[in-house]
Here is the input.
Amino acid sequence: MLNKVNDAAYTFDFGSFDISTGTKNAVLALSNAQLDPVFQDLLNGSFDISAKGAFSLSRFDSFTGLAISGSRALTISFDSNLTMGSYTGQLVFTPISANASGTSSMNAITMNLEALAIPEPSTWAIFLGSLGMLTFGQRLRRRSKA
Here is the structure.
């Protein structure tokens, strides 16, 4: 789920996944929207993916010349075969507007990535069943001592 934090920051939350259920993918579209009919700017940009964490990325390379109404598919993947825990990463997109009069840098946009790997339900059932047996055993010991 993509949530807007403010005009320059977003959070993409993959949610919770059972461990060992495979790779989860999300495809995002980076689009060049025409906000003013007078300006026909091309969109150029680059990504800083140095803090991507446990996430895999596809098509997050630098690009130039994305035309008005054009889009570029970007794929973010999370491999749930990792150990149990919370995973985070961060991407920073630096857009540049280009037209006949030159180029203009725009404000960077940050996307925080989040995912949570949790044990499968059967693991929880085994854990809770074992805990119940230990508790039952302790009660039997207390009764036999009394």
In short: Helices lie at 121-145. The mean pLDDT is 86.
